[in-house]
Amino acid sequence: MNDLKITTIDTPSQVRELLGLLTIRDKPNNQQSLPILYLDLEGVNLCREGTISIITLLVAQPAKKSYLIDVHTLGALAFSTPGSVGKTFKDILQDKTFTKVFFDVRNDSDALFAHFGVALKGVEDVQLMINSNRKTTEGRRRLRSLDYCIRTYVAMPLIAEQIWGEAKYDGKQLFAPENGGSYQVFNQRPMSRTMQAYCVGDVQYLPELRRIFSERCRTELVAEETEKRVVESQSSNYQPNGPHKALAHWSEEQNRVLDEEGASAMLLPETP
């Protein structure tokens, strides 16, 4: 995490300052492109049945900078506080002109919609980008985790991989019940450096994964399936947990198209 500056956002004035940075390029006659936002949420049973504790936000351009938006402390003010141009964070999350990049958006979307009425727009799902690059229907059947994808597809120096891996391991020791931890650690304030590093580790390499796979995937199919994920996560019958979450849900027609492309393209090998 040494190359990333981490800023905690836990007051309305800090929310306004952050919004000013995000929307300064959204003014009339400003030709600069809007920043791409890389996001991940953490909480206690993160879904409609639980709570949101932290939103980790990475802005990769012009320089990588990460923010920990303290939803546990701010509550609705994290989403309703207006910035200098009148936009709230909720407005940005619902504005399709701002690209929001997630790795498996489903439970994040579910929690945002259920607890704060945020209906995400402009979403890209890197998990689906990567899965769509599998050569066959069978190869696409199971979804890969973020940890697996980072370790498999991101080329990083050994020391960087060690730092990232240690941050992920140390964080899981604190929150995973099977390791004697508790998800309540995401609500402890001040937030420990260990948990800050864990949160940032979930967004740190999303820009690189997106760079590798966004131009190699069938954009329209991934966009179609991503939108389906968002809509389903907001439905009354959405199930946030269960073995079905590990399976891809491409339609028969989508799989046919992807199989045809996989037969003639250099896509991902059929590893387990």
TrEMBL record:
Gene3D superfamilies registered for this protein in UniProt: Ribonuclease H-like superfamily/Ribonuclease H
Q: Which GO terms describe its molecular function?
A: 3'-5' exonuclease activity; nucleic acid binding
Cited Pfam families: DNA_pol_A_exo1
Single biological process term from Gene Ontology: nucleobase-containing compound metabolic process
Q: Which InterPro entries match?
A: 3'-5'_exonuclease_dom, RNaseH-like_sf, RNaseH_sf
Stretches assigned to coiled coil: none
Ranges for domain 3'-5' exonuclease come to 32-215
Q: Which PANTHER family does this entry report, sorted A to Z?
A: RIBONUCLEASE D
Q: What is this protein called?
A: 3'-5' exonuclease domain-containing protein
Q: Which organism is it from?
A: Sporormia fimetaria CBS 119925
